[in-house]
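Q: Structure tokens for this one, please.
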Amino acid sequence: MMEKRPRIRTQKTWGDRVRTMGDGMHALFLLMPYGILFSMFIAIPTAIAIFLSFTYFDLVQTPTFAGLNNYIALLTQDGIFFRNVLPNTLQFAIIVGPGGYVISFIMAWILAQIQKAPRTIFALCLFMPSLAPGVFVGTLWVTIFSGNQYGFVNAMLLNWDLIDQPIQFLQSADHIMWVMLLVSLWSAMGLGFLAMLAGILNINEELYEAAYIDGIRNRFQEIIYITIPSVKPQMLFGAVMAIVGAFNAGGIGVALSGANPTPQYAGQLITNHIDDFAFIRYEMGYAAAVSVVLLCMVWVFSKLAYKFFGERD
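A: Here is the predicted structure, written as tokens:
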């Protein structure tokens, strides 16, 4: 048997230590702007919201410690939350999140198949609604679904003799949620869509050629076995963006209906509930507790997205 040679431990010189320390300081200096901005706009506000969720605070008096009273009230006394807000939010998130995500992937894959010039134009057209402010989107779709004979949808239905009088799409509990879903899906192709488009365009063409040699016969198999595995990081980013966007939506319902709360709470989402208690009733502590619940929901669904699209060791 061969004898094991003893390992020779090299002792770092003073110069090596100085260089290592200098590299660490250089990395710290480069990360400092990100750390400062992350602390100012994410970490510190989140910590303050968690702290306020355990207090009673009305913006006038000093916050007073209330323990778990806000969370107990949310679970036992807020009937609107469990009867309207939570079901509306889950319905909205389940439809708009996966729906917008699937539409974004399909449109990104379709655009990747055409020439560069028309692809750029179509991508810009699909991306622009996500950049439009809520007021503009609300004004545009309020005109389309206006509750009088001048609204585009009502005008068409009246001209086709499908209805006798205009439908109050934006003030009816039976219709407001479906209008919100339509508008949200229309503007769902944002940064996640662009990330997936970029990922698909950067897939090595040799992978497709090798796959067809190995037995792939159609485009569907190509998507399943080549495209999706190759753009998993972009799809993870798109999934997280879709989840965050779906759960943080709410302004569109207020913009469409013109009121918070929305008619009969039919389009009331968690963010509307937070705004209602924070800026209308000035119950900041309770609003902070609802915000923490929303944060936990987003975290859980983001973990699920990472489980499906994250890299496995």
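A few notes: Strands lie at 55-56, 64-65. The chain has a mean pLDDT of 84.
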